[in-house]
């Protein structure tokens, strides 16, 4: 593809993203309640995918236990809003804080491990937290409990009003996750993370603080996962260990989304989330074949292009649609060359 055509394609992609964001910004005003509910789920899953991509795609922490922080956020929100009678809107922010605090000891445990052992360790921690949640009688034990009507009505008396409020919260969380992580990647920290993604050993040799950046990414992701857990609880109107700590919904599907979209890229989680929802919407009626198609598709994409669909598209483009790297400054002409000869 010629450079000019590639540049046009990049700007076309940016316009598509801006158009999509504009539609999402007014979605409750133009779509039906069922569509708004589906878009709320889309934004929650997009937030989780952005965070897993940051942790696994850039910091090289292949965690399969991030559903732990989604569940912790869900239970923390329920505890503050329903049991402690804290303002439900404030309880959402407190859920992020609790997820962050939980991430500190979890990090101290699993960061002693590496590679496959770290992945298994993160999963064991998540399952342990799920079992512990099932022992909390105030939260309904193993079967869970629904949110009381008095708390639910805070977000809207009528269903349409309530769905719209929850959607705006999910939209704000996703926008904050995307914008703040983009700014992080545009900083010197992001430069180090990009170096780790491209060549971990080489990054360490040139002085990138590998451990420090991994800790930062892990702790960065936890509060956003907690916020996503609070939004998911609002949408489901209940907490229960198998749903709030679901490894299928909040880890397996997310890994599929990021891998098929493009791990280690900013565009990948967006592309993967869109494809996942399209497949689920149109193929869910065929039952188990729906999951088989998801698996076959992910394997096929990885075999053709390990960087996912975005990596495949990126071969033909001169740059990223969402740029996170800065162009090097133009070389300064040597002074000697600028001095006219006598």
How are the elements arranged and paired?
Layout: H1 3-25, H2 27-30, H3 33-58, H4 67-83, H5 88-110, H6 115-133, E1 145-146, H7 149-152, H8 159-186, H9 188-198, H10 200-205, H11 210-236, E2 238-239, H12 241-244, H13 247-261, H14 267-283, H15 288-304, H16 308-314, H17 335-338
Antiparallel strand pairs: 1-2
Helix pairs in contact: 3-8, 3-11, 3-13, 3-14, 4-5, 4-6, 4-11, 5-11, 8-9, 8-11, 13-14, 13-16, 14-16
What does this structure look like?
With 342 residues, this protein is mostly helical. Helices cover 74% and strands 1% of the residues. It has 17 helices and 2 strands. It has helices spanning 3-25, 27-30, 33-58, 67-83, 88-110, 115-133, 149-152, 159-186, 188-198, 200-205, 210-236, 241-244, 247-261, 267-283, 288-304, 308-314, 335-338, and strands at residues 145-146, 238-239. It has a two-stranded antiparallel sheet.
What is the arithmetic mean of pLDDT?
88
Structural class: mainly alpha
Instruction: Give the % helix.
Output: over 70%
Query: Helix-strand pattern, N to C?
Result: HHHHHHEHHHHHEHHHHHH
Task: Please outline the major beta sheet.
Answer: 2 strands, antiparallel
Low-confidence stretches: none
Helical region count? 17
N-to-C CA distance: 46 Å
Number of DSSP strands?
A: 2
Shape: globular
Question: Strands of the largest sheet, in order across it?
Answer: 1-2
Oligomer: single chain
Portion of residues in beta strands equals under 5%
